[in-house]
Design a protein that fits this description.
Elements (H helix, E strand, L loop, with lengths): L1 H15 L7 H12 L10 E2 L4 E2 L8 H4 L20
């Protein structure tokens, strides 16, 4: 139930933000922060089996939520975004 509530809140914030999405570059920075890459380990809250965040304040699909400008990492790991242009 908490995951549904968290995602519903994210959808409301995303809608209020005009459905703004990040640039591909900004999106990839967020994904690499969660999923890791050859230079950086994955976040401890990232679940590779379903691409979800395990943090109780989130639980959302990283691949979906990382594109939304209105969203932040619950652990404060994503860089702040002020503009998508």
């Amino acid at each position: 139930m908490k995951r549904i509530s968290n995602f519903s809140t994210a959808v409301i914030k995303h809608t209020a933000d005009g459905l703004e999405r990040l640039t591909e570059e900004q999106y990839l920075v967020r994904l690499n922060t969660c999923m890791g890459n050859s230079n950086t380990p994955a976040c401890e809250a990232y679940n590779p089996e379903n691409s979800r965040c395990r943090d109780w304040r989130c639980g959302c699909s990283i691949k979906k939520k990382a594109y939304w400008r209105s969203e932040d990492c619950p652990q404060g790991l994503w860089p702040s975004v002020t503009n998508t242009n």
